[in-house]
Amino acid sequence: xxxxxxxxxxxxxxxxxxxxxxxxxxxxxxxxxxxxxxxxxxxxxxxxxxxxxxxxxxxxxxxxxxxxxxxxxxxxxxxxxxxxxxxxxxxxxxxxxxxxxxxxxxxxxxxxxxxxxxxxxxxxxxxxxxxxxxxxxxxxxxxxxxxxxxxxxxxxxxxxxxxxxxxxxxxxxxxxxxxxxxxxxxxxxxxxxxxxxxxxxxxxxxxxxxxxxxxxxxxxxxxxxxxxxxxxxxxxxxxxxxxxxxxxxxxxxxxxxxxxxxxxxxxxxxxxxxxxxxxxxxxxxxxxxxxxxxxxxxxxxxxxxxxxxxxxxxxxxxxxxxxxxxxxxxxxxxxxxxxxxxxxxxxxxxxxxxxxxxxxxxxxxxxxx
Length: 369
Prior knowledge:
Elements: E1 4-10, H1 17-29, E2 35-41, H2 46-54, E3 59-61, H3 70-84, E4 88-92, H4 94-104, E5 113-117, H5 126-135, E6 141-144, H6 147-157, E7 164-166, E8 187-192, H7 201-211, E9 218-223, H8 229-238, E10 245-249, H9 254-258, E11 263-266, H10 275-282, E12 287-290, H11 295-298, E13 306-308, H12 313-325, H13 327-344, H14 347-357
Parallel strand pairs: 1-2, 1-4, 2-3, 4-5, 5-6, 6-7, 8-9, 8-11, 9-10, 11-12, 12-13
Helix pairs in contact: 1-2, 3-4, 4-5, 7-12
């Protein structure tokens, strides 16, 4: 049987939702007989690259450092595809999509399949969407994890709706059976993710301010790094929340953060999917999100979590209060959320969709962990 050779190309392999999806997809594809999957990062190896190598996945770090290195990275990618004899190149995120599209022009159409993935509904930077509008023509299909992305990309990049295929992000629920730690009397609210303006973490800070007229009621744990850290630290001080907000920095695995919280809140104005939501749901932690693109594709309001309007800390505070004070609500949300994750967002189901997309005839049992 002919060995299928698939290359996943991504902008970087830093800690984040899309690198995690690429890591899990590559690892599982390599478990399928007669499939060889490798990963290329436009930048450095990154922590997720090290995790991939631990999982016995070959990773190519192309060493890109901004626009000045774009030509060098593209030529490396062309050589990698040619000499690696890959039959399929599947790129993730705009920078990887653009360079893969440029590289595709050096190959006959019937020699290599080119697929792209868009993972965001964030409207800015606008030039990302203008570039995506140009490069999508070089891809056979555009893969997105949620219907919201296809709608946004159709509007902002004029990509025909029939070109999209929705394959949700996935996890192994058993990997999120965690022993959670308990201590003190404060209810532990958590945020896990990139510290970026799109996440609207200040809304969460203001919501916490509304919930702490006294001490010991609630404590906010923020896990992540990014450009907003200094601004958030200043706002914590300004709101006099130093005693009830902890900025932890990044964690190598989401389980490390999840075991320290009682509720996950994602107050973003837009998400492509919100992988952390299904991770928390699988861990038995109730979730609150905003009624924003991407998030509402994952959370069913009042059934598997609560949704609130974007940018309204008062509404967010009331939702947190409901979950804190209503144990029956918490238990109902947790139970239904776990059922929903097992039905819609497991690798056992999603890998079959990828196998069909990639024209792989047989798949192996999903890997645990």
